Amino acid sequence: MTSKFVGVIAALALALAACGSGGGEPGGGPAGTPDAGATIEIGSLYEPQNLDNTAGGGQGVTEAFNGNVYEGLFKLTDDGKVENLLAESYEVSDDGLTYTFKLRQGVTFHSGKALTAADAKTSIERVISDDSQSARKSSLTAIESVEAPDDATVVVKLSSRSISLVYNLSYVWVVNAEGKDLTTGEDGTGPYRLGSWKRGSTLSLEPFPGYWGTAPANGGVVFHYFTDATALNNALITGAVDIVTSQQSPDALAQFTGNPDYKISEGHSTTKLLLAFNDRKAPFDEPLVRKAVSSAVDDAKLLESVWAGHGSVIGSMVPPTDPWYEDLTSVNPYDVELAKKQLAQAGYADGFRFTLDTPNYDPHPTAATFIKSELAKVGITVDINVITADEWYTKVYKNHDFAATLQEHVNDRDVVWYGDPDFYWGYDNKQVTDWIEQAEQARTAEEQTELLKKANRRIAEDAASDWIYLYPQIVVAASDLSGYPVNGLNSQFYAYGIKKG
Amino acid sequence: MGRYLLRRTAFLLGSLLAAAALLFVLLRLLPGDPANALLSVGATPEQIAAARRQIGSDLPLLQQFGSWLAGLARLDLGTSFVSRLPVGPEIAARLVVTVPLTLLAFVLAVVIALPVGFVAAWRSDRWYGLLLNGVSQLGIAVPAFWIGMLLVTVFALRLRLLPAGGFPRDDWAEPGRALTSLALPVVTIALVMSASLIRYVRSATLDVLGSDYLRTARALGSSFAGAMWRHGLRNAAVPVVSILGIELATTFLGAVVVESVFTLPGLGTMLVEGIAEHDYPVIQGVLVVSTFAVLVIGFAADLVQRLIDPRLRAHVGGGRP
């Protein structure tokens, strides 16, 4: 570049920098004294699609709104426990079919309206209505009716026992559905109310002065949305954001490691990377073939190459934060000789060929290439077919038109999908379906845990899918920040405890 | 002139209609279903059907096209499938970023390209003329996002002079801050654009420098500057203006890539998000507005060209005046 060019650029840059306010440098305030008025700038890759989690708002609205703007009758804490929130207490009838919830008193919505049992009733009914696109709808099918006999009481009647009801209700926002369009606005009871939402850029939350509980430890939060991880990390480096909700770029970690200006915390994630077979069709209808594939792929090596020491191998569908977790990595160990033997036993001594439908975003293409080279060692040829998320949904999820696919499954407690023979992977085992159904109808948590452990062990023995690894959950924050959630279970991100300084 | 304007306007509207129809058909040929963007793993077939019903993607195509066109005629671009917000106001909000970005970049590119292109032609035999020529050729080959990333590394990450991306939440309430956010994207686009502009300015100037009329003017006693000013610039401007029109349109479209690099909430990022979510009303809205802008710019460039060059005016309107 000529000196003239450089001169022009430099002059322009300096002139513009001089007339600006100099951007946002991190920190501010003397060390050791948290600034309760400070605004926390949060960087995220997940912008809400709209503001309603029953109308396709997606992961982003859960992250920004769960517990911050909206509250449920219960809340799932960052370490995975279910606590009372808007429900002060509840009772279950002996047959387990009637739940009576007592509402907390003195709670008001951001609009000023007092919370009543009628609001809780409408809120639950919104999620299970015909129009609902809530991801939780299918787990609430046992609900037969919701009644509000008085302003402080909600009664839920079930058609069959559902031990997860209280847990599932932690995802049901209590909303004031009157008068406001909840896809573009909000009326919740949480510690924050919506400040402004600038599509494609930022969403701000400001403290709600009439909040019933403890006021937030900060003066508000702003979510800054990015479409790529590099831009997000640049914002963290330049101090434009204080914290990144979930670090998705392993390569970028190096620049924060060992730097005193940043803190890196690794919590527990619930996101699993799956090589999901179509268990309906040959050759993957044969458990031996699936086991062989599972044993032929060195999961730990892939995890190491993608995440360099972060994350874990779990050997089945259940992450350590679920009560029914068990280390099952030894069920289908990495063992090429074993894999070859199993293939021969299944009648595929010379291997076979299949197409692997691979979503086009990280880490799927990397994983696909790795799996292809691993399986080549046992004589299996993999044709990688790269597809968009949208094509995946139509081809694999809806039409079941695939041999095997890669997909990340983000939710906790999602081992129950193996009890649904109509789910996309088509795993159909009567025993597992029964166990999972009985677990939901269990009388005690211990009984539920026991049954789901059995189911989880059985799907591992059958290699219903190949569970490659559990993602790490890494939060990178400026070192003057504290009180932030480190696990972010199911994309939740409670912001009210975050302190600066 | 009146008939010319009328004909051009009719042509503009016709092109717009053709573009709208083409867009609509092409989008529908893409595989996938817009309802998918609204749902997550765990959705039941009933939920998928309900989503399709809600956004109207289960209606016959002709009916969808008809109601979209009817909306267009009323300047109503419809409602996003995903955000459930009207598309028109959303586009207006994005233009607050994209229009200044495009115009600033365009002006800067012209400011760079005119003198550099002229010098590269005028002193094409000197080392610095050759160098300018070489650099502009190199500039054409470099992609915009790479220049953007380079500038971010130097000015944002190392020198900490400018933000790495983003745009103020209150838009232009503090013009200084907004300009600061636009500085690197503007320079990125301007550099890429000026590279090709320099080529055009250089070759237009070379044509003029070698022309008979300039030599005649000099022979009649004009100074070089005088001859250039009276005869040269005006002639050189004709091809350059037509290229400027195309370049301005290209800048507008090039903003798509650059906005993504700098996470600017402009029209470009809106388009990218719309495509990812199969949000047809958003994609159609952004593309119709962009097409309209490009056609209008081309129209304006034509008009300016005719103002500069009387020879073009003489041929219009069918008969001779």
From TrEMBL, chain B:
It holds the Pfam family BPD_transp_1_N. GO terms for cellular component: plasma membrane. Its main location: membrane. The keyword Transmembrane helix applies. Residues 95-305 form the ABC transmembrane type-1 domain. It comes from the Bacteria. GO terms for biological process: transmembrane transport. PROSITE patterns: ABC_TM1. The chain crosses the membrane at residues 91-118, 130-157, 177-198, 236-262, 282-304. Keywords: Cell membrane, Membrane, Transmembrane, Transmembrane helix, Transport. It is a multi-pass membrane protein. The keyword Mitochondrion does not apply. InterPro entries: BPD_transp_1_N, MetI-like, MetI-like_sf. It is found in: Cell membrane. Belongs to the binding-protein-dependent transport system permease family. This is ABC transporter permease. It comes from Nonomuraea terrae.
